[in-house]
Amino acid sequence: MSMDSMIQQAFPLRVATTECTLPFQDDVPVSYAVASDGLWQDLSSDWLALRHRVAVSDIHLPYGPLKPMVEWKCSFPPIAIWQAFAEQARQAMPNECAALFVWAPSTDSWRLAMRDALSASPTRVDYRNPVLEPGEIAVVDIHSHGRLPAGFSSIDDLDDAGSVKVSAVFGDLDTTVSVAMRLCVAGLHYKLKLDSDGSFQLGQIIEGAPQ
Q1: pTM for the predicted model, two decimal places
Q2: Residue 159: C-alpha distances to residues 123, 126, 136, 206 (Å)
Q3: Could you report the per-residue pLDDT of 17-68, keeping only the tens digit for each?
Q4: pLDDT value of position 209
Q5: Residue 96 contacts residue 123 (beta carbons within 8 Å)
Q6: Shortest CA distance to 47 belongs to which of 137, 135, 181?
Q7: Count of CB atoms within 10 A of residue 82's CB?
Q8: Cα–Cα distance between 110 and 137 in angstroms, integer?
Q9: Which H or E run includes 29?
């Protein structure tokens, strides 16, 4: 099998028709489609299904349109897990700390898995990842900024590059906690908002514009 055949098999490319909506292939992890306004990616994982535009065409292409789509296949982490991490982060002040929010599909349950800090300071934490149980999935990658505001640094951008995950930061832990969140997919970042009930609200995906 040639390299091109292997790539096409691993990452199928389809064309959006003008007659009907291009069906989402839930059993294909990553596929692409050419539509009237550019190149789109369909991404399917155990916890997320996402259709989003990854390249804009400067001209109108002779194909059908596509619309962005997101489906959270997992439940949302309970508020108690966010609160538990905030408490761990306060105890670690003024240094940073890091953790994973891990989802078990078989029981639809969540747990907080703290990362063991190998070294930590108010601006950086180096850690060892926790061991996951069979079937568990790390969905949320979270770290703290201690007394500093929440936000994503250039180092965070490098850490998140190529990942498919929810990335979150807690800051201002000595006052009113600030939160920064984003969905990381295909090297793009979409803003997320954490609602009071623990659900995620995805920003700008309706317009297909990464933020």
Answers
A1: 0.89
A2: 15, 12, 21, 26
A3: 988 789 999 999 999 999 999 999 999 999 999 999 999 999 999 999 999 9
A4: 42
A5: yes
A6: 137
A7: 20
A8: 10
A9: none
Q: In whole angstroms, give the CA distance from residue 3 to residue 116.
A: 41
Share of the chain above pLDDT 70, in %: 96
Q: Cite the DSSP H helix spans in 3-115.
A: 3-10, 79-92
Distance separating alpha carbons of residues 186 and 93, to the nearest angstrom: 33
Cα 128 to Cα 149: distance, rounded to the nearest angstrom = 24
Residue 192 corresponds to which tokens in the numbers above?
Answer: 């997320």
Helices (H) and strands (E) in the chain, counts: 3, 14
Q: Which tokens in the block code for residue 168?
A: 């979150």
Per residue in 61-119, pLDDT (tens digit) is 999 999 999 999 999 999 999 999 999 999 999 999 999 999 999 999 999 999 999 99
116, 145 in Cβ contact below 8 A? Answer: no
Element (H, E) at 157: helix 154-160
Please say whether the beta carbons of 182 and 191 come within 8 A.
yes
Contacts of 94 (CB under 8 A, 6+ apart): 122, 146, 147
